[in-house]
Amino acid sequence: MERKPYIGIPSFLFKMDGTTTCGTGKDYIGSLLRAGALPLQLPVSSPEDAPAFLDRVDALLLPGGEDVSPRLYGENPLSSVTYLCSEKDAFETALLKEALRREMPVLCICRGMQLLNVTLGGTLYQDIPSQLPNAHGHYQHGLLRDEPYHRVTIQEDSRLYEVVQAGELMVNSFHHQCVRQPAPGLRVCAQADDGVVEALELPGKPLLAVQFHPEGMSARFPVFLRLFEHLAQEALRYSQR
């Protein structure tokens, strides 16, 4: 029986019965299990512990969650930026930098893609409705997680195209921030019809980043499961180096 790779997922923090709790979204867990991988939650911890955590896994998945603090790219927060966690920003940044240094496979989703861009020197639109008034809605309150909302066009010479084997996807959408200036070295490989960046890659490296939420679509639409299957395959190769 082939060994299953371990995928590390940083946790998010929430209140339960008056206690701050570390958690991981069920859709992320289910997508990785269906892809043949074993998810391991990485609790929000000191950035100094990032290398020790990554010693225990074969790949990293940076999930969605809180807004990335604008102070990380030299801006003051707009009034619409209210959901921040500096402790999580610091821990996930340390994990990402260490994973990139090791050339460990990484999949970044939503906030994860935004954090990737900021970590490598890019910037974000803090709030799409106020800063990109011609963009269509990207955060839909009440939309089901597995419901397609808008179209994404994928570059045919990209890693994302190679993985999903499609030039277009209808994706879900749950974000009010997005990439403004891509970081040096990152390539935009997919966009929405309104120009909003929907995917980034680091050419020559085992990394993919998407703005939409494939974990919410993977049970209903197998094309989205391919992203997690690809991560699992890359993780297995990494573990055998």
Could you please describe the fold and organization of this structure?
It is built from eight helices and 13 strands. With 241 residues, the chain is of the alpha/beta class. The chain has one domain (6-239): Class I glutamine amidotransferase (GATase) domain (Rossmann fold). The longest helix is centred in the last third of the chain and has 18 residues, at 222-239. The two termini are 19 Å apart. The relative contact order is 0.18.
Topology overview:
Layout: E1 6-10, E2 12-16, E3 19-23, H1 26-34, E4 38-42, H2 50-54, E5 59-62, H3 86-102, E6 106-109, H4 111-119, E7 124-125, H5 128-131, E8 150-154, H6 159-164, E9 168-171, E10 178-179, E11 187-192, E12 197-201, E13 207-210, H7 214-217, H8 222-239
Parallel strand pairs: 1-4, 1-5, 5-6, 6-13
Antiparallel strand pairs: 2-3, 7-10, 8-9, 8-11, 11-12, 12-13
* Total of domains: 1
Kindly report the CATH topology.
Rossmann fold
CATH architecture: 3-Layer(aba) Sandwich
What is the CA–CA distance across the termini?
Answer: 19 Å
Largest sheet: 9 strands, mixed
Radius of gyration using CA atoms only: 17 Å
Supply the number of helical segments.
8
The dominant shape is: globular
The top level CATH class name: Alpha Beta
Assign the structural class, choosing from mainly alpha, mainly beta, alpha/beta, alpha+beta, or little secondary structure: alpha/beta
Q: In total, how many beta strands?
A: 13
Give the strand line-up of the largest sheet: 4-1-5-6-13-12-11-8-9
Q: Please name the fourth-level CATH homologous superfamily.
A: Class I glutamine amidotransferase (GATase) domain
Quote the beta fraction.
15-25%
Which stretches are low in confidence, meaning pLDDT under 50 for 5 or more residues running? none
Order of helices and strands: EEEHEHEHEHEHEHEEEEEHH
**pLDDT averaged over residues:** 94
The helix content is: 25-40%
